[in-house]
Fold this sequence. Notes:
The chain has helices at residues 7-23, 29-32, 42-57, 76-88, 97-110, 113-124, 239-254, 257-273, 285-313, 321-344, 362-375, 380-391; strands spanning 130-133, 149-153, 156-167, 174-180, 191-197, 203-208, 217-228, 232-233, 275-276, 279-280. By secondary structure, the protein is an alpha+beta fold.
Amino acid sequence: MDLTHSAEDEAFRRELKAWLRKHLPRRSRYVDGGDDFSYDDPRRVTAARAWQHTLYQAGYVAIGWPTEFGGRGASIVRQTILSEELIRNRAPSLIGGMGLQMVGPTLIRHGTPAQQQEHLPKILVADEIWCQGYSEPGSGSDLASLRTRAEIDGDFFIVNGQKVWTSAAQLADWMFCLVRTDPSAPKHKGISYILIDMKTPGITVRPLRQMTGEPGFSEVFFNDVRVPRTNLVGKLNEGWNVANSTLQFERNMLASTTRTQQRMNDLVALTQRRTKNGVKATRDPAVRQRMADVLIRTEAMKYHALKQLSDEIHGRPPGIGASINKLVTTELNHDICAVALEVLGSYGQLRRDAPHVEDKGSWPKDHMFTLGLVIGGGTSQIQKNIISERGLGLPKGS
Length: 398
């Protein structure tokens, strides 16, 4: 495995770093404390849309997409360099990330030309914000048990049911949604993948406030919602195959190894300036043991990601790599925050505006937020089943 980059790729990195030095907004997630955009603050949402548009104009959004769809057809190495530098420079997250990294690639693979032409250009510049209509009450990890129904009425689907844990639903212009179109079929059959305009009559969005204090996701109700049949992605009753494509993109999206390394660096900096039991935290044996654990896991995660990068460059099948990424990275992010809270002690309970707070209160907030990521996108237990059964060939329930 060759870990060096070509001269052309290094030139791309230098060009990107120079552009970021000139154009990067001063606010960032960990410096500012909290998310890049707040669901309760329209000004920050507007600023987030503007940031994505600025990046797109410079050619740094969805660079891996084919050129005919607005990308640059960039190699996986260039995409990795872009991700690394955005995170290392603490650039704001992209508000249109779900469209760029989930539904956009799904439409490129499975969508009709009309769907691609209508949605992909707007996804690139954050003129369309997307949410995901998968989970339902009683249908989370067992997604195929979903009960939201779509009955055919001429040129329309009539959708009735409920979705829940729908991230950014209160901001979203569109939803990519799984619905049951053949209730008599086995549960993995008879499911279709449709696109729903969130302004359609009959849709009710009720934000749910998380333990972080923010309404990051919502429950969504559908009451006789009319969706054009032209919004069907893929074939009728074969949406499970399309959904699996999206889930693959999602699990890779959640597994940002560079961001985890950055957060690990934040933890090291925290322990170097804090005391524990009367000595520098870096000299406390218990802290050193916990730090060694998460640092070793961070390094192992990094080299696993590099192996996956090498596999993709050489055309080797990815196997269960996305599930490994999702499992390892989300749990590690949560544990890094847990170590920070141990180092902070009672100060770890302080929120952003409290006196004597460290890092603008990002550690307790991230500790709560990362717990949700362990669950979202397929729980750790589900990922372990996938790894054991599909990767290791173990029998079910082993």
